[in-house]
Amino acid sequence: MSSEHADIICVANPSWEGDYVKSTVKIMAELAANHRILYVDYQYTIKDLIWGMLGKSEYVPVKRMLGLENPLRKLELEDNTYIYILTPPPILSINFIRSPAIYDFFAGWNAGIIARSVKKAIKQIGIRNPKYVNAFTPQIGVFLQKKLNITDEVYYCYDEISTCLWAKNHGKRLEDKYLKMVDKVIVSSKGLYDTKHTANENCHIVNNGVDFDLFHQSFVKLEEKEKPKKILYIGSIDSRLDYGILTEIAIKFPNHSLVMVGRLVYDEPYVKEKIEKLKLIPNVIFEGAKAPEELGAYLAQATIGIIPFVKNDQTAAIYPMKINEYLAAGLAVVSTDFADLSTFKGLIDIARTKENFVSSISDYFENDNQGFQNKRVSIAKGNSWEKRAVEFSKLLR
User: Fold this and answer.
1) What does each of the 397 residues of the chain score in pLDDT, given as a tens digit?
2) Order of strands across the sheet with 37-40?
3) What is the dihedral of CA 285, 289, 291, 294, to 10 degrees?
4) Whether the domain at 3-206 and the domain at 212-381 fall into the same CATH topology
5) Alpha carbons 50 and 56: distance in angstroms, whole number
6) Which residues pair with 336 in a beta bridge?
7) Angle, vertex CA 138, rays to CA 137 and CA 144, nearest 5
8) Contact 241, 308 (CB under 8 A)
9) Which of 70, 71, 59, 147 is nearest to 107 (CA)?
10) What kind of fold does domain 212-381 have according to CATH?
């Protein structure tokens, strides 16, 4: 089999299913057109299994984890393509362990469980000489490499692991080690490139993309937009948001709606209090989490899409998917300067203060036009997941 059509085994952090967009899933779905892919799904723990059996989590695939259903699925995708999804057996919950030596012992144990499951799937499918992609699971990758005799491996990093709560004890330590073990690193942002390429010079950027056709369905010409106008935020509502900016927007534009679409994540103690205060403002509307297919109505009604992130180590690593989603629907975009967004210079407004943020919204309300709207759509079309997958595939070769 040529390298252009080589088998790929992707050991993934994100589960294949879910109600939000995942870059790993999108890229692997696109690559499935030219590659046979085994997607090793999120590695659920024994704790997850118990929660699933008690009905406290609807996403845990209990029967597949226990072998009561075939853990290896052949899932049909669009355009007559397919992908193999493997649900490994449950592994031990070990993130709470502080001792590196003890953690590494049990991490090796977990890697052994996953390796046996992968070897069985490889035999069933008939995979030969695969290319391995590790999608943000360095804590497994360090120990899995030897157990699977991996000689050709890419680390796909789409977040800053040092800021992830689940990896606070050992994530950075093991990622630093793993970066030196892999052949190539692919990151999703300039911020991640800056922090990873010093450990592995064979480091490349493939930015996040957009399901252009899906989001462009929400395109509505400016003159046909509803009034009063709507300001839209799509994404998780958590500690990354600047609640001072959100409050300022709501107060300065009392005749317009600030619509917040996304799951509430109380990842820091103060977040719940900030959200509750925001809810008291009459023109702020919280809609909850929505699947990508449900976002169209909100995008069609909105005039401006916002990205009010605080500026810190976590957000510096982000290339937000929502930029291209907003642009595909023709929305004007106002963002803070949380990360390197130079590829969108002249296309979106980047505000350095909350006063600048409000001023940019006001300016778009008054001066946006059809020409600007068409340009935004054109740029988004060039950032599709299909094109991102082409970039990813070239790097795999």
Assistant:
1) 445 678 999 999 999 998 788 999 999 999 999 999 999 999 999 999 999 999 888 789 999 999 999 999 999 998 889 999 999 999 999 999 999 999 999 999 999 999 999 999 999 999 999 999 999 999 999 999 999 999 989 999 999 999 998 999 999 999 999 999 999 999 999 999 999 999 999 999 999 999 999 999 999 999 998 888 999 999 999 999 999 999 999 999 999 999 999 999 998 999 999 999 999 999 999 999 998 899 999 999 999 999 999 999 999 999 999 999 999 999 999 999 999 999 999 999 999 999 999 999 999 999 999 999 999 999 999 999 999 999 999 999 8
2) 72-76, 82-86, 37-40, 8-12, 131-135, 153-157, 184-187, 203-205
3) -20
4) yes
5) 9
6) 351
7) 90
8) yes
9) 147
10) Rossmann fold (3.40.50)
- Assigned token pair, 299: 């995008």
Q: What are phi and psi of 92, to 5 degrees?
A: -75, 145
- The number of beta carbons lying within 10 Å of the beta carbon of residue 379 is 16
Listed by start position, the domains of the chain span: 3-206, 212-381
Instruction: Give the fold, CATH level 3, of 3-206.
Output: Rossmann fold (3.40.50)
- The verdict on whether omega for the bond into residue 138 sits within 30 degrees of 0, i.e. cis, is no
Give the 3-state DSSP-derived string for the chain, with helices as H, strands as E and coil as C: CCHHHCCEEEEECCCCCCCCCCHHHHHHHHHCCCCCEEEECCCCEHHHHHHHHCCCCCCCCHHHHCCCCCCEEEEECHHHCEEEEECCCCECCCCCCCCHHHHHHHHHHHHHHHHHHHHHHHHHHCCCCCEEEEECCHHHHHHHHHHCCCCCEEEEECCCHHHCHHHCCCHHHHHHHHHCCCCEEEECCHHHHHHHCCCCCCEEECCCCECHHHHHCCCCCHHHCCCCCEEEEECCECCCECHHHHHHHHHHCCCCEEEEECCECCCCCCHHHHHHHHHCCCCEEEEECCCHHHCHHHHHHCCEEEECECCCHHHHCCCCHHHHHHHHCCCEEEEECCCCCHHHECCEEEECCHHHHHHHHHHHHHHCCHHHHHHHHHHHHCCEHHHHHHHHHHHHC
